[in-house]
Q: What sequence folds into this?
């Protein structure tokens, strides 16, 4: 039996308590991480834009206030090859990996370009059984866009 002290939000005042440890072979196989040792390692460059886009896509209020690019002017519009798609809502889609731009033509005739879309998202979109459902859940509110 070990006597410990607990402090913090779980207790109003510092409290002593006794803990009976489980037998050696029934204890969890976990140890504290060596945080200080890891601080000495060289820092790894990390990119968080995809994480941020994913988090924002989960918040419906963000979609209402995120910045939408202005309608593209004729001189800014580059022709992108699109692949015809059999879908109720999506007529065709194209992707430029160099600029990470996804262009989608809807069955109502409107064309939108979505920016900073990773190639993996485009591939998943093209493989999805329901293009409209995938678009609504994974692209529509997650990436900035322009109307072409």
A:
């Amino acid at each position: 039996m070990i006597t410990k002290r607990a402090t913090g939000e779980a207790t109003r005042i510092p409290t002593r308590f006794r803990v009976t440890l489980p037998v050696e072979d029934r204890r969890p196989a976990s140890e504290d991480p060596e945080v200080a040792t890891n601080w000495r390692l060289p820092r790894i460059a990390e990119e968080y834009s995809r994480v941020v886009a994913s988090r924002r896509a989960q918040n419906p209020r963000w979609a209402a206030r995120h910045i939408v690019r202005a309608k593209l002017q004729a001189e800014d519009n580059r022709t992108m090859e699109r692949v015809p798609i059999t879908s109720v809502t999506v007529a065709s889609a194209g992707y430029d990996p160099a600029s990470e731009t996804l262009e989608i033509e809807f069955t109502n005739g409107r064309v939108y370009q979505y920016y900073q879309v990773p190639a993996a998202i485009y591939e998943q979109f093209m493989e999805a059984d329901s293009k409209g459902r995938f678009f609504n859940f994974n692209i529509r509110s997650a990436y900035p866009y322009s109307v072409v």
Notes: The mean pLDDT is 80.
